[in-house]
Every structure is written in structure tokens, then in C-alpha cells.
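EI: anyone free to look at a 437-residue chain?
SC: sure, send it
EI:
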Amino acid sequence: MPALTLREILALDPVRATEPELLAGAGGLDRPVRWVHSSEVYEGANFLDGGELLLTNGFGLTDADEEVRRRYVREVAARGAAGLAVEVGRSLPAMPAEVTDEARRLGLPLLALRRVVPFVRITEAANRAIVARGLSGRTVVRPFGDDHTAALLADLADRAALNQPEVEARAALAGFHPGPGARLLGVSVHGARDAGVVDRAVRQLGGAGVLRAVFPADVLALLALPGTRSGDLPGPRSGDLVRAVQDAFRTVAEPGSTVAVGHAVAAGGGWLRWSDTLRAARTTLELALTVPAAEPAAPDGPLVTSSRALALERELTRGGVDANRERLAGMVQAALGPLLEWEAVHASDLVRTLEVHLRNGCSPTRTAALLHIGRQSLYQRLERIESLLGLEVGDPDLLGELLAAACAHRVVRGRAGERPVAVVQRRVTALGPLKGA
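SC: here you go
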């Protein structure tokens, strides 16, 4: 099905209500319109990418001289605009003759909008129609076919060339309307048979808004939650949205599945923020599936983690493990060489003990509990570590270096062997590997 044309845009009710008059460019009425923008300044042409219908109230043209007006029309045409629509009667009493003349010379469709209709009504109706036409007619090679929600989530996760009005229009078509002040969190689930796990988590969270879709190996979702005011969400961690979402999935996810939660972003922060939290969830899921966990998970439950829990792993592997392998190995050797030499000839777990201890604020009680050993055994391990390294584990100046090195050791060790089948399957999913991850 072809794209929506300028002629069809003019037939939409909000556009017809402006009583549009075509002053130039009749031969361009069948041009495809990629998007409809509005601008109150004559420099608005600089923001066009081609194929747009530009709406303006003409304010920037009222006090401009003839040459400035002509140059404005030339710039709009040079940017490949599908047309220019100017509201006349308020800011601009009448269409300047030089604007009409220049548009005729260039073959640019020029419309005079005789009645005032809020541009937001025009852009909303037009862009919804454009999106609906594009989605119904697109040829999708991804396995989700004509699933509009899956298409939007995939485009966001891959950071496809989008813009905010397009994202909002496509989200609205899928019934996703984040309210004022809403926070968005991306979620990626591996090992779920359907999207039911997301729906159950949403119910646990009190009915959050959600975009979710099933891909061949994973479920991807974007949750819209209220702000962080106390009492907004159920449970003792209601003020921490990431924790609240993790707790919900720990309750409803099936044993053996893996859930990764992205960071919370403001819904009004722009579509790139929507993309960021989805990409963070996907990157975190892949790390959770391929890198041994720093701490043991519950044996009979799902593994539920977050982008902030694996923040160090994500930073260390930015650009991919293989691209960083030599650097990570050097970091490990420089900081932990004596421990690695000891472990090569002794049955011990010193590097893992060190990392768990550092990740838990050097708390002996917490570390011993997580490692399932007594406090006395832990003290013996810590003494051995300090003796081999010739330093104090609790030295604040060393905490960052030691934790990064211990984490790097786990990352490299996890990738050294054969990759799990689950991860090989992920590489051939509809979404595929993250671009630029």
C-alpha cells in the first residue's frame, strides 16, 4: 500500500476545517508525506529531513523583507518538504505575493489555511493516519509480522531513525498512554512461553501501563509506572521503581527464567530515553545469560536482575567482550595476579569471595551468608587474600580497582568457554544483537 499523500492529508477533517486553499504546486499533491510538523519560526526549515508537510502560523514572515521570505521558501523546498501550509488572517493578514511566486517557481505545494484550527489537532490526526498507513502496508522481515506493538518495541530497542511525534503516535495506536510524570522501565524476559509473565507483573504493580510483545526467544516490554511518591506502588519498596518491578517479577516469573529490568526514565524525556531503558534491559539480559552471576541466585526461582545491578559488567564490556578481552585480562592480572596464581594450585574461592565482599559493603555478616560459610571461615579467606595481595581489603583507595578487576575476571572467565545454547538462540531472534552495544 502506498504512503499517505498530500492530497489525502488535505481530506482529513481537521485539515478541511482550516478551509485550505492551494496557491501553488498543484502538481505535487500526490507527493508522499512522511510526517507533519509545525513551527512558529521561519528557521523551521532547518529541522526538516524531507517528506514533511510544514505548518506555520506565519509569525516569522510578518516583519521579514521580500528576500528573506523568498529565501525561506527556497530553504523549505531545498530540504525536500512535501508542502508548506501557512495560517493567514491572524499573525499574517494575507499570503505575501513573493512567497506564492517563489513556491510556484519551485513547484512547492503552498497552502493558505483560512480558518484557525489548533496545529496539534492537525498534526495528531495526520500523523496517526500516516503511521496507520505505513504499518498496514509495510513488508516486515522480522517474525512478528503485522504486530504494531512488536514493531515499535523493536525499533526502539534498535534505536531506529524515529522522532518523538512518531513514537507517541505509534504508542497511542497500541493503547500506550504514559500519564504526566510517569516513569518508564524496559524489561526483557528469557525463558517465558508467552507475555503472561508481564501481564501478571503489571497486576502485581497495580495496573501499570505496558507495551509488550513476544519475540522468538524473549519477551520485551516497556512499563509505565507512576512517580516515586510514597504509596504509589504496592510493597515496602514502593519508592524505588526498579526494586518494585524486580519484586513483582520475582513473584510471578517461572523458575529457570531470566528477567532483566532497565533503569527508570521520565516518559516526557523523549523517545531516546524510551530507547535507552529498553536497550539497557536487553544488554543486561544478555550479560545475565552469558556471564556467571556475582552472587548465587535462589535455586528454585527466576533470576531477576537489573541494569544497575550489572552496571559494572555493562561498562567493562561496552563494545563487546572480545573487543575488550586483552584490556580486561591485563586489568585482572595487574590487580589480582597473586590470587590467580594461588587458585591455580589450591582449591579455593578467593577471587569470588573478594568480589562478593566488596559488592556488599565489606559486611562480614552479609558476605558469609551469601557464600554459605561461617564468619570464621570468611575471616580466614580475607586474611589469605590480604596476605597474598599485600594490602588491606577495606582500604577505600583500593575498593574500585579491586571490584572492577574481580568483575572483569568473572566476565572473561564466563566467555572463555562455550557459550550457552540460550545465547546462541538469542543471536538469531527477531531483534538480533543490539546495534552499537
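EI: The chain has three domains: 6-130, 148-309, 319-426.
SC: 👍
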